[in-house]
User: Which sequence fits this backbone?
């Protein structure tokens, strides 16, 4: 079993690279952003609650996302491994994930952290907003999402660094080159 966290700010390319990694390594993709957007579009009670935060670019409360992850792990008992995309986004989430995985005796093996300059991030998110139809891809909300990232999410990198699980990857350049750089690290684990 191989469990990977794909870490990085909004717009760093986690979604794009996840799709490539899943295909190559046959991992199960867990994207909290996708799960939440699905709940919003189905107008479930969880989705209606989450929407209030998402539309402002704020993080959804930890208990909500941790509960979602726990159910996802239970739904997939026999897998090669998971790729966590957009989760954990706070140190409390990282801690909760470690507890859930320790219980299953399959810890996080590797955290790949995508590094992209602030300027490039904003440009990517704004141009994605013109095609994605995502209600949180407007300039004002994007600024808030990046602020939330610095305040609450970037400490997650230190958390994994202190456990010696973090490897940084340059997230600028062609999608193929970035993917190759990620694979060369993953291949030392598989
Ligand atoms: P991006 O990849 O652009 O960062 P996501 O699709 O991962 O965006 O997330 C969109 C929104 O969903 C976030 O701004 C936040 O409101 C909510 N969200 C997603 N994952 C989490 C999480 N792990 N914890 C809290 N909120 C989350």
Assistant:
């Amino acid at each position: 079993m191989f469990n990977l966290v794909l870490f990085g700010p909004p717009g760093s390319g986690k979604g794009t690279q996840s799709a490539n990694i899943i295909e190559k390594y046959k991992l199960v993709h867990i994207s909290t952003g996708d799960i939440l957007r699905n709940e919003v579009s189905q107008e479930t009670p969880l989705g209606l609650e989450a929407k209030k935060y998402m539309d402002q670019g704020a993080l959804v409360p930890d208990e909500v996302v941790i509960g979602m992850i726990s159910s996802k792990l239970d739904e997939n008992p026999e897998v090669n491994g998971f790729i966590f995309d957009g989760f954990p986004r706070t140190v409390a989430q990282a801690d909760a994930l470690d507890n859930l995985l320790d219980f299953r005796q399959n810890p996080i093996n590797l955290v790949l952290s995508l590094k992209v300059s602030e300027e490039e991030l904003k440009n990517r998110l704004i141009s994605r907003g013109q095609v994605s139809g995502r209600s949180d891809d407007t300039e004002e909300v994007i600024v808030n999402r990046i602020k939330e990232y610095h305040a609450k999410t970037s400490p997650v990198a230190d958390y994994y660094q202190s456990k010696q699980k973090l490897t940084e990857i340059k997230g600028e350049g062609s999608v193929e080159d970035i993917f190759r750089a990620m694979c060369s690290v993953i291949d030392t684990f598989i």
Remarks:
- Helices lie at 14-25, 32-41, 45-54, 62-75, 91-103, 118-132, 139-162, 175-186.
